[in-house]
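TICKET: design request
STATUS: open
ATTACHED STRUCTURE:
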């Protein structure tokens, strides 16, 4: 168990990391409530290649939840003296695109190995990982068919950081050396080392090692300058390479490639003779599907492993497995070993066989019939789930808009009733016929505006409620001598006396693109209520008039209601024609419309108005968007609500 000091440090860093949520990380949580294991979800900037790859991966799997990188952090009991083990769980990083992410997903950066010190924190680790992934040009392995996520370690053990305390130096051998590929020494050396994992030194250094009573077997650890580590046994001396300097370690070409160095490079490294425990368990994964063309069953897997004559296994590194009876080889990733970190596969006297239980997991691109069926079923279920969420979201938005519209209609009808619309009498008697078949008689004063009839129609019949019709959408048509629309600004003439007026609902004009069935609008635009320009024009409901208001006051009040309705109708049209009108105006700090009065509230008033609008249209609406609409509407809450709800 970790001591109290270690736990206190991790608790403190968990709190500090939680403060990064929304900036450097999307979320942080404990795995199975274990303080020593964290799960981070990291999102990069939208225009970066790695984030585009992550989103393409999520789209391929029809799973929006995978639009962030899933990173796992495992602290050792010696933290902060030892660095945490940081691995990527999902998605896979293309192995060739990044030289510090192992095939198994472990991050091998200098900060997490040779440059680590106890003063570093998880904030430093997150920034280091993020910057390294962005700066290295790492690419997401977006599957054409299927790519399995990184396999989680099955062995419940403390992470190993390959410190000297983990694997003590023996035989007093620790040197700074230069790494060289076998092919750069000679063809003979290349042929001898290429089918093994062994390394070699100059004959002079080999003689020095064997001359003393050293602890056997001789197992060496090679640590590159960037913190990558692997272990290997030693090969026989090459008497014909006396020209090789004593500070040179000769490695197989494929080992050089595993370190992500070119064969012609001579990078510095630290070489130690270490004591490793004998292997008891190992978990290996083929790196490619071609492995299964040569190996058909579990017996063949074990035979290939034994035939390869490996000397050591290091977690999060690659080894070559040779197909029995051939010179064909396949790369395997060592996902985990037990005892942890690294193990030897040779005995001290080279005669005793090491009993190691080897488990193989499928290659990332391996897919049999059962896997394919399961994958397709999973993707189909995700697609159905996403479609249902979209439908439910659209239904909820539509219902919210409908309720808001009905509330506004009810409020307006109350205002009209309080203003005495039903009590008006005049010398022009007409019969209003509504779409639901109902008829209402009314009398109006000649010379007044037709809007008196419209207001009467809004109050006299429940049709406007049943059909959810707002004031600007009421249309009046004469029947005789021919159908003709009456404009609200027309005067009521005596010729209308004893005539029948049809009350209809005004529908929006359909453009050519809509008639053609143009579906070019994005799904996001369709699901956004502010983008729904349906048959409900925005209506700003004025404040309720007093019941004891004077008649002239009521008349002015209704006139103001019509002016606001027309103003908002113009505002809606302007929004449709210039989608960026409001946003640009908000960004510049200028008025978006000339006919919207200039009003600059205090910060507290602005926040209060924003919350009022969100309380009606939904708290999920972006506050910045609400602010932009409010600015465009002169900070009138009713107008902003109308525009956002698409009324």
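STATUS: resolved
RESOLUTION: sequence designed for all positions
ATTACHED SEQUENCE:
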């Amino acid at each position: 168990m970790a001591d109290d000091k270690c736990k206190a440090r991790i608790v403190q860093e968990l709190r500090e990391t939680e403060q990064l949520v929304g900036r450097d990380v999307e979320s942080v949580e404990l795995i199975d409530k274990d303080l020593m294991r964290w799960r981070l979800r990291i999102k990069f900037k939208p225009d970066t290649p790695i984030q585009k790859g992550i989103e393409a991966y999520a789209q391929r799997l029809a799973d929006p939840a995978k639009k962030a990188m899933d990173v796992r952090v495992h602290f050792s009991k010696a933290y902060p003296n030892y660095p945490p083990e940081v691995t990527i769980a999902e998605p896979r990083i293309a192995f060739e695109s990044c030289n510090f992410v192992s095939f198994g997903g472990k991050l091998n950066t200098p900060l997490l190995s040779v440059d680590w010190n106890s003063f570093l924190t998880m904030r430093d680790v997150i920034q280091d990982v993020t910057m390294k992934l962005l700066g290295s040009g790492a690419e997401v392995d977006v599957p054409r068919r299927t790519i399995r996520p990184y396999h989680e370690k099955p062995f419940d053990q403390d992470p190993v950081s390959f410190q000297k305390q983990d694997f003590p130096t023996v035989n007093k051998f620790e040197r700074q050396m230069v790494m060289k590929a076998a092919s750069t020494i000679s063809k003979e050396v290349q042929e001898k080392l290429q089918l093994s994992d062994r390394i070699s030194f100059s004959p002079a250094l080999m003689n020095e090692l064997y001359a003393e009573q050293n602890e056997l077997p001789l197992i060496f650890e090679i640590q590159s300058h960037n913190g990558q580590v692997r272990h290997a046994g030693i090969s026989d001396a090459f008497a014909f390479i006396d020209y090789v300097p004593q500070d040179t370690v000769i490695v197989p070409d494929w080992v050089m490639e595993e370190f992500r160095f070119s064969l012609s490079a001579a990078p510095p490294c630290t070489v130690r003779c270490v004591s490793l425990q004998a292997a008891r368990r190992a978990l290996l994964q083929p790196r490619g599907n071609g492995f299964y063309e040569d190996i058909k069953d579990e017996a063949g897997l074990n035979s290939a492993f034994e035939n390869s004559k490996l000397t050591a296994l290091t977690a999060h590194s690659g080894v070559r497995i040779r197909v029995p009876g051939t010179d064909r080889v396949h790369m395997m990733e060592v996902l985990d070993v037990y005892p942890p970190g690294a193990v030897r596969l040779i005995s001290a006297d080279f005669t005793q066989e090491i009993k190691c239980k080897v488990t193989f997991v499928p290659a990332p691109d391996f897919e049999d019939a059962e896997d394919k069926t399961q994958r397709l079923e999973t993707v189909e279920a995700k697609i159905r789930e996403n479609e249902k969420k979209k439908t439910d979201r659209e239904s909820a938005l539509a219902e919210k808009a409908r309720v808001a519209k009905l509330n506004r209609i009810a409020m307006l009808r109350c205002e009209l009733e309080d203003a005495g619309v039903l009590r008006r009498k005049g010398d022009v008697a007409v019969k209003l016929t509504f779409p639901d078949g109902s008829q209402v008689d009314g009398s109006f004063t000649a010379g007044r505006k037709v809007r008196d009839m419209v207001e009467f129609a809004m109050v006299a019949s429940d049709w406007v409620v049943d059909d959810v019709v707002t004031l600007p959408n009421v249309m009046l048509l004469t029947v005789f001598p021919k159908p003709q629309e009456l404009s609200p600004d027309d005067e009521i003439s005596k010729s209308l006396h004893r005539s029948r007026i049809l009350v209809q609902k005004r529908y929006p004009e359909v453009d050519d693109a809509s008639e053609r069935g143009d579906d070019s609008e994005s799904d996001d635009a369709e699901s956004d209520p502010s983008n729904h320009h349906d048959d409900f024009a925005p209506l700003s409901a004025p404040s309720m008039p007093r019941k004891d208001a004077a008649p002239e006051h009521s008349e002015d009040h209704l006139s103001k209601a019509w002016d606001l309705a027309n103003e908002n109708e113009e505002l809606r049209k302007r929004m449709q024609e210039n989608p960026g009108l409001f946003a640009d105006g908000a960004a510049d700090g200028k008025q978006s419309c000339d006919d919207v009065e200039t009003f600059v509230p205090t910060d507290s008033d602005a926040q209060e108005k924003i919350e009022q609008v969100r309380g009606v249209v939904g708290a999920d609406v972006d506050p910045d968007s609400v602010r932009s609409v409010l600015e465009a509407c002169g900070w009138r809450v009713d107008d902003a609500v109308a525009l956002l709800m698409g009324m």
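CLOSING REMARK: The radius of gyration is 38 Å. Confidence is low (pLDDT under 50) at residues 510-572, 578-598.
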